[in-house]
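TODO from last week: model NADH-ubiquinone oxidoreductase chain 2.
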Amino acid sequence: MNMTKVILLFMIMLSSLITMSSNNWMGMWMGLEINLMAFIPFISKNKNKKSSQAMMIYFLTQSLSSVMFLFSILLNAMLFMSPMFIEELIKMMILISLMIKVGAAPFHMWLPEMMSNLNWLECMILMTWQKLAPLTIMNNMIPNNMFVYVSSVMSAMMGAIGGLSQTSLRKILAYSSINHLGWMMLFMSMNSAWYKYLMIYSMMIIMICLLFNMMNIYFINQINSSSYSLTEKYMYIMMLLSLGGLPPFLGFLPKWMVIQSMIKSGLNMLLLIMMLFSLVTLFFYMRMMSSMILSYTMINKWNYMNMNNKLFMFMIMIMNLSLPLSSVFSFF
């Protein structure tokens, strides 16, 4: 990574912090615009059509959402003493602009198409840090209306159904991100601890993107292109099951928090729908790992791995197993 990429990465992080620390709408909008203008050159590559397509998709969608966001806040400032239905309409327009930015359903179609043109490190930033600023603004609005519930269920549904027919690992993780975003928005409407969900989800995505980057695989049929050790298989399976929210792995912990909040709020039917679509996501995670499970491993290659890979595998195992156990013990 050269110095230009380091500076752009610093600007991406700084712009999100500007948005989160602002106490007025214009400061938040300014931080989002700086973030947009820093991320576009970050994903650029010379003489690469896929990179150009990804930059164009990201610029058009984010510009559309920024224009809608700016128009809504200016309209809100002009109509200071407006009727109640006008205020609700402006609030809904701001929510729609933020949903476009994070890729929530039904404004999600740009995210899988864009991620299929990026490398793993750029996908990792797009699925983790780039969601932080828009979700923080959304949380400040206290979005506990029916529109957020509908978008959350649609995100869970589209994220589950959309990943069934995909063979690209980047598109599968994009639809998985849309599904998790539905859970996150639902948690946000009931509890202010949504950042815990985002933090744990970001840890899982960082681990799995680094693993795919280390293996250099982008499609399902590339998983068996080389022989993996038993340790690498266990780590791969453990991370996918954790991302699917299967207990007792780390990914079940945030979904457990959402389930408890929904039961306390009396949203039992909505909880049943979300859990059913979460089960569908677990199906295509199993499809990603089934060929690796059925393939035969001759020897355990742990002794032949270098020290960096050993430390990475050990870190994955500790994070996926010890954190859920410690959280369970904290309840007693």
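Done. Residues 49-78 form the longest helix (30 residues).
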